[in-house]
Amino acid sequence: xxxxxxxxxxxxxxxxxxxxxxxxxxxxxxxxxxxxxxxxxxxxxxxxxxxxxxxxxxxxxxxxxxxxxxxxxxxx
Length: 76
Prior knowledge:
This protein has 76 residues and is mainly α. It has two domains: 1-34; 37-76. The protein is 66% helix and 0% strand.
């Protein structure tokens, strides 16, 4: 465990609380306007994936449903 996790008390959070924290941190990063450090190849791949989702939404599971299913598996 990293010293940062221990000094911030993150190691004392439950798994669910750490998942929520990780999501909140990720959302806060995504919300800040900044220049991307993606390569052209990475940007093209993301564009391709977004297009695929838009054209074939039936092939994908929304995050909320996937998360609920995963949590249900491990709550047993």
